[in-house]
Task: structure prediction
Amino acid sequence: AQSVTQLDSQVPVFEEAPVELRCNYSSSVSVYLFWYVQYPNQGLQLLLKYLSGSTLVKGINGFEAEFNKSQTSFHLRKPSVHISDTAEYFCAVLGMNTGFQKLVFGTGTRLLVSP
Amino acid sequence: DVKVTQSSRYLVKRTGEKVFLECVQDMDHENMFWYRQDPGLGLRLIYFSYDVKMKEKGDIPEGYSVSREKKERFSLILESASTNQTSMYLCASSLEPGTRGPYEQYFGPGTRLTVT
Result:
C-alpha cells in the first residue's frame, strides 16, 4: 500500500517570491508521482507527473518537481509565484503493478499568494 | 479537449433520501472514478470502474453504490443519505495505462452535496 504526506496544510507567500511545497511518500513498490492543482470552485488539474527518466520534471505554469528516491520525496517548486497561483495543491502516488489505477492523494497544501 | 461533466454543482438533500450523482466523460476513457473530498482528508476513492458494468470498491465504499451501464457515464448512488455524507464529490476518468505508464486522471468540477 502507498501513503502520501503533505506536512504543510497552508503556505503563505508574497507575490514574486519562490515557493516549495513538500511531499513525501511511502511505498513498498516503485511508484509514479503526480502533482494536481485545484483552483477555487473547480476540479483538479494535472500540474506535472513523474513516470521514469529524468528526476527533474517540468510542468505547466512554471512549476517543477524533483523526484528523490532515497528521500522518498517529490517536492514542488516555483521560482516566482503569481497571485493566480493561489490554489490547493495535491501530491499523489500510484504504485507500479497495482491491480488498478488507484491514485493515493495527500491531504493537500493551500498556497496563499498575497501582493 | 477532455471534458468530464457532473450533473449538479450544488445539491441539498434530506436524510434518508436516495441520491444520484451523474458523471459523463466525452473521451472514450475506459476508467472512471468517484472520490469524495473533505477538508484535511484530501481525496478518498469511493469506487472505480474499468469497463462497462465492472466496478471495484475503493477505500470508503460503505453507504454508496455505483452504476456504469454505458462507457461514458458513471453514476454514484447514495442509497439512504446521511449527514456524514455531506461532502464534495469529484468524478474522474482516464485511459488504460500504456506501455510508458499510466495516463493522467481528468476531473469534473465537483458536486457539493449537503445532507440535512
